[in-house]
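Lab notes, practical 5.
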Amino acid sequence: MDFFCQSIIAGIPLRGCVSSGFALMDSSKSIYFGTPLVEAAKGEPARKAIGISFGKSFNNHHPVYNDYFIPFWDFIKTDDPRSKFISRMVLDWPRYWRISPDFKDFSFADCIKKMNTNSEFSEYYDNAINFFDFSNEHENWYEEINRDGISDIIDYYKKAEEWFKSVT
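Output from the prediction step:
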């Protein structure tokens, strides 16, 4: 999260997808293949915002604490078939920005506005600002979810989706 936030201050718009699973990577032979690489490569273009998504493999493992991710659907290109490769959970870097003393002297919105120089991609920057605001408004989103009937991770994600739709 620190790397991503530092990139914003430096004026470098990043967009990516983090996936998990088994892959073969041999840089000396330029061999790279595996399900997580495909998932990340296909999922990343299905975003319409700068930021970091998780691949669908995230839903299988739930590898991070709630403070580090947040459900958010509004950045997904719903008409893009590649959207099936990304999780609706995204890295909550805005939370990190708000709590880290390294960023207290920087206005996130001002940093984003400086990068927004091409009208063709303005939506990506506007959506990042909207996501920042959403994260701020729902800092404790995991306390807002109705947990009745949750028996597994699939139920959890269904409840997260219900919650998201109720607040947007």
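Observations recorded by the TA: The first helix runs from residue 2 to 10. The chain has eight helices and six strands.
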